[in-house]
Amino acid sequence: MSADTLNGRKRNTPVLEKELITDTDTLEAVTPETSAKVEAPIVTPEAPETDVHQPEIEKKVATKKKKPIALIAAVVGVGAIVAGSFGYRYWQYASTHQQTDNATVTGNVHQVSSRIPGTIDRVLVNDNQLVQPGQLLVELDPRDYQSKVQQATAALENARSQAQAAQANIALAAQTTSGKTTQAQGDVNSAVAAISTAQAAVREAQAGIPAAQAAVREAQAGIPAAQAQVAQANANLQKAQADYNRYNQLYQQGAIARQQLDTAKAAYDVATAQKNAAIQGVEQAQAQLASARVGVAKAQSVLAQAQEGVTSAQAKLAASRGGLQQATAGGQDTTAKRSQYEAAKAAIAQAEASLKDAQLQLSYTNITAPSAGRVGNKNVEVGNRVQAGTPLMAIVDDQKWVVANFKETQLENMKPGEPVEIKLDAFPHHTFSGHVDSISPASGAQFALLPPDNATGNFTKIVQRIPVKIVLDQKSIQGYESRITPGMSAEVAVEVK
């Protein structure tokens, strides 16, 4: 067992100290005087050689020499008894307690820092001041962040306006597209019907052309017959004229009667009429041929017109189908408008998030206490320019405990819940009580910045220390709550079973 452990146990055993003080007080009455008597030299007067009382003097001197020896033996016996009693009690105490002076008071130290950059506008607390949770500690200049909140608000209103416009465009585009689609579909149907009508007219015109051409051929065939009739009528006219002329001469000569002349004259008139009728028949046949040719031309014109109507109807159909496609594209435009509306809603959500972020940044200008406690390590003043994460002060709360670093050889019988006696160097005349809360899952060396590597080849076995958390009993620290601070040195003794 090490010397520091023994010294610690001696310091942490008030009962034994009292007993030792009692035993020491008992010995104090004997030891100083006795030791003085033992250490004091014995001076004997020189006697003359002829002194008759010499034997008596020698007896007295021998008696005086025996008394210090007896006192020394008594002191040694008492000391042995006291040492034996102390040793037994110390052994009994040491077998049920584990002690260490490698212990400190620990507590929750809440670091207060700025979450945003800014300039300190006000500091509302002083060093060592008691604060409550949520209490305002420091204020930053909020004007820059207020401007950002206003900008975010304006951006949100703009996004909402754009969303409303996009939503109105959706309804308008939907109605327009529906109307255009209906109209385009009607135009397509009308164009299809016009094509059918024009095609029927084409077929009818195509059917009329052969009849007109047949009439032309018939009229052409009637002209020679009419001309033959004219020639016959001419021949008949010439004969009738010759007969009339001859009968007229005979009548003038009185060779024939008037009746014969009139008959010849009638025959001449008939022949003349027949000639005129034949001429008219030729003219009529020619007129019929011209009319038949006009009918052919008209039929061809009707055919051409009907074909043009078909072409026009097909063009209208194409245009109507283009309008229908355009109307369908208008539906796609409506889909695009809906996409714009969704994008506008996303922009609203983004603007709202930006506004919340700006408001949150503005709220960070008020730095509040994270918990109840006292202010420590305050290093901020009005006008300081701070960055995000700059430490401003610390808040130390009232929850405090002791972390004792026991040697690993002392933890065999130590368990959570076992009672602990605690002495703080700041209060050496007061003993606090507590209990073991928990034992660290690893040694302190494992949590170091550079933990040791035992596989490097130069391993030296060193007894490791394991942190043990000890919670102070509230009753034992009454009146000391504000005086016990983290970092104080402590000595602890754990009563193990």
From TrEMBL:
GO terms for cellular component: membrane. Residues 31-54 are annotated as: Disordered. The chain crosses the membrane at residues 69-91. The keyword Coiled coil applies. It comes from Nostoc minutum NIES-26. GO terms for biological process: transmembrane transport. It comes from the Bacteria. Keywords: Coiled coil, Membrane, Transmembrane, Transmembrane helix. InterPro entries: AaeA-lik-b-barrel, MdtA-like_BSH, MdtA-like_HH, MFP. Residues 225-290 form the Multidrug resistance protein MdtA-like alpha-helical hairpin domain. Residues 110-397 form the Multidrug resistance protein MdtA-like barrel-sandwich hybrid domain. Residues 149-176, 223-250 form a coiled coil. This is Secretion protein HlyD. Residues 402-494 form the p-hydroxybenzoic acid efflux pump subunit AaeA-like beta-barrel domain. The keyword Transmembrane helix applies.
